[in-house]
Amino acid sequence: MVPAPSLQEVERSVQRPLYLRKVRLVPFPASNQTGAAEPQQAVLLQHGTTALPPNLTSWLDDKGLKLQVFDLSKNSQKQCKKLASWAKKASKQERPGSFLVVDLMALGAPSHDEPTSAAIELSTLRLHVAQALHPHHENLRWLSCTEMGVASLDANAGNEQDASEASSYPLLAGGATSGFVKGLAREWNVPCRVVDLSSEDLPESWLEQEWQDTSETLEVFYHQGQRHTALLQEEPAEDINPLAKVPKHRFAAQENPPVLVITGGGAGITARITEALARHLSFRALILGRTELPETSDLLPVEDKAKTRRMLRDRMAHDISPKELQAAFQRAEKQVRLHQQLKTYERLGVEWLYVPTDMNDTSSVRAAVEKALQKWGQVDAVIHGAGIDQSRDLANKTPDELQQVMSVKLQGLAHLQAALADQPVQTWMAFGSVSARFGNEGQVDYAAANEAMARWMLGSPLFSESLIIDYTAWDDTGMAASLATFMKERGVDMLPADTTSQHTAGLWLAGGQGEWVYSGRLPTPEDANNPLGRVQFRVPGREVEYAKELYTGRDVYLQDHRMGDTEIQPGVVSLAWMQRCAEELTFQQPCSLLRDISFGKAVKLFPNRPILMESTAHRVQPDVIQAGIASQRQRRGLTEHIHHATATFVLSDNASSEKELPTFSLKPSSKSAMDLSSVYETFFHGPTWQVLSQGWLNENEILVQLPNDTTALGQGLPGAQRPRAVGMELLLQGAGLWALRQRSDYVLPFAIQSLHIKVEPTLEEPLQARVRFVRQDKDVLYFDGILQSTKETLLVVQDLAMRVFPMPR
User: Which of 512, 477, 515 is nearest to 22 (CA)?
Assistant: First the structure.
């Protein structure tokens, strides 16, 4: 067989590279963040008799919470109405973010003999609960407790599962809970987390840790007293081209070609991967799908839509409705595509047997498997690619839609396993979704289905050598192909189909196991806080230029910076862009002095109107560089150019002669410390770059400090850019906060005479900014500022000009 191409060969032949990441369990220390408000009220969601996690009730009692318990195992509709009524009343009394919802339903006893049915029922109940709380979701934090077992995420962690049917329930229920909660977090944009409590030796403070940890971590696992989370480990090129290293594939020792059962192989992603397998392996395939395959003579010429519609009217009643005619035409299209796909398999040498099958019906699945056994005598492997997606906002999603989405994945898998229990199946491969790993808006059910499938296959000995692939959207096939524009606006690069199918085939044939994520570029939480993460670098002539497209909804840090309802790029990001350009031009020699910084029009972003940002730098003297930032946008068919900011940079060797630093007399006093939480409701910076933790105010001066835990601040900024940008932001916010508190003025950065980098900041020690009001000239306020660590002065700003704007309503 011809080996799959190497990653380098693929990247040379396609425009977009392929990223592979292995899902792994890693130790995850308790957060040092202390910014979480004390909970005011708590709700426990139960399903029958629930074994409460250790220390849960004692922590709730210590907090003096008003506790409400809702048992969804009986009369769930009535319970959800009570829950909605309680949430409405509670929302009028308490501050946002102070309600704790503890979901314990996955810890309850199953209500069905089949674990898959129980997991689907619990997800349906969770949907009802979420819809009841939806009008007041901004006031709550959601915590779901599961017992899915860390073995279902990383086999090296322990927790062996026995082969009994009972072991399936926690894996399925826990996985469905995890996927649902991650989807909920993305859709509601509130703190949601799933916590696996499978370990018996929980630390006493586990619930306190989860409350205090306000990071965006979506899932946590406690094992042997230690806290873990799931991370993606990117695999190097030589490890993701397995067929180039492994001369013999996993079926090489068999005398006869292996028999594969493939669900969903009649179209889409599964069909593309089956084709890729056929280029490396001789095999026989039982292909299961929903479409009936008529005789070749009965296939219609669907390329000619008008002719096909006339033929359908002749075959059916002439008074057929337009809706019925369209449904008949779509069935005819699917039949033609299926016929063409099966012919493609024949050309590739695949001996196939196609059986129309209802994956939700155990007798239908058993009958199909029996036909394969009668024809070939055994089954060696299973590829489970069947699935449906019915994306819809949670508030409008119906229980029937949820159950349809989940049953194809879960009950279809259960019926296959039962039908093949006596067969020597060597390996199982299933195709999931990146939504199961990170969550996605409108897909709580799809995420729940795929995550439950992954946890079950990887954690239960019922499945041998399981491989789960979580895909992002493919560019020309699959359920998300029609959403290419939508995906691009949200920062998701579509997967190149040829590359992805080849590597999936290679990974499986070479013995790959565990859970892997195939993606193009992903909009990770780091990207949300990383304005420089997706920048493209160009060097036209002797200039340096960075270019980046900005989209509303994709660059998440913009959502927290607004002028009215319009998203803007913060001035500190423009500074970071220009300085990065300047330092590229000097081959990374630091530019420690920034002079004559001016801000023009704000970078404004409007829905569905991306703009191209360009930052340039060029030398004007051997030690002086000028930089600027501008944008291009299309408006009424014309290209509009807008200037946003300029700055002059001086190389570090020539910066030591600058004038003395400003001095300040402010002395912090606990008596004058400010509560900053209310300030952010009107201040122009939001949570993503909200760096202040506390401050002290005098008549003309202010001192502000960073929080103790700075892990969420500007993640992903390269090298020194991250602490430097955060330090600049601290100075700007200090000036803005002084104007807001002392004069009730709402200000934005306008210009800076000079910014002197004395020592590169780090985030490894406490930082504080001292800012002094100097003077006012019309509608501009001027400040001097110092950024300090506990040891020394780091940054010095002179004549920071902040322009006054009307207070936002």
Answer: 515
Spatial distance between the Cα atoms of 525 and 716, rounded to a whole number of angstroms: 9
The answer to whether the beta carbons of residues 754 and 658 sit under 8 Å apart is: yes
Say if residues 683 and 722 touch (Cβ distance below 8 Å): no
Cβ atoms within 10 Å, residue 679: 18
Tell me the Ramachandran region of residue 465: left when phi exceeds 0, alpha when psi lies from -120 to 50, beta otherwise: left
Question: Is it the case that residue 321 has pLDDT exceeding 90?
Answer: no
> String of b and e for 554-570 (b: at least 16 CB within 10 Å)?
bbbbbbbbbeeeebbbb
CB-based contacts of 205-208 (< 8 A; 24+ apart in sequence): 205/30, 205/55, 206/53, 206/54, 206/55, 207/53, 207/55, 207/56, 207/59, 208/59
Contacts of 505 (CB under 8 A, 6+ apart): 4, 273, 276, 277, 279, 280, 281
Distance of CA 677 to the CA centre of its chain: 27
Q: What phi and psi values does residue 600 have, to the nearest 5 degrees?
A: -90, -130
Cα-based distances in Å from 211 to 33, 104, 707, 796: 10, 16, 17, 37
Residue 610 and residue 551 in contact, taking contact as beta carbons nearer than 8 Å: yes
- Name the CA radius of gyration of the chain, rounded: 30
Q: What tokens appear for 286 in the block?
A: 């039982």
Longest dimension (CA), the chain: 92
What are φ and ψ of residue 628, in 5° steps? -150, 165
What is the pLDDT at residue 538?
58
Helices (H), 348-477: 362-376, 399-419, 434-438, 444-459
What is the pairing mode between strands 466-471 and 514-519?
parallel
Give the integer Cα–Cα distance in Å for 618 and 755: 19
Residue 453 has pLDDT above 90, yes or no: yes
Q: How close are the terminal C-alpha atoms of the chain, in Å?
A: 68
What are the E-state strand segments in 593-718?
Answer: 593-599, 603-605, 611-621, 624-635, 638-650, 673-674, 694-697, 701-705
Which band of pLDDT confidence, cut at 50, 70 and 90, is reported for residue 297? Answer: low
Distance CA 130, CA 72 (A): 13
Q: Which residues lie closer than 8 Å to 608 by C-beta, 6 or more apart? A: 489, 552
* CA–CA separation, 165 and 35 (whole Å): 44
Is residue 465 within 8 A of residue 426, CB to CB? The reply is yes
Give the tokens for residue 372: 């394969």
How many residues are recorded in the chain? 809
Q: What is the per-residue pLDDT for 722?
A: 59
Tokens of 638: 């014309």
- Give, in order, the Cα–Cα distances in Å from 543 to each of 91, 598, 617, 628: 56, 20, 6, 12
Average pLDDT over residues 120-135: 91
Percent of residues, the chain, with pLDDT higher than 70: 73
How crowded is the C-beta side of 658, counted as CA atoms within 13 Å? Answer: 23
pTM: 0.65
Q: How many helices (H) does the chain have, and how many strands (E)?
A: 19, 31
User: What does the pLDDT look like over 329-381, one tens digit per residue?
Assistant: 777 778 888 888 898 999 999 999 999 999 999 999 999 999 999 999 999 99
Determine the Cα–Cα distance for residues 105 and 121; give it in Å rounded to an integer.
Answer: 10
> pLDDT tens, 664-675?
766 655 455 665
Tell me whether residue 534 is exposed, middle or buried, using C-beta atoms within 10 angstroms of its C-beta: 0 to 12, 13 to 18, 19 or more.
Answer: middle
Match 């003395």 to its residue by tokens.
660
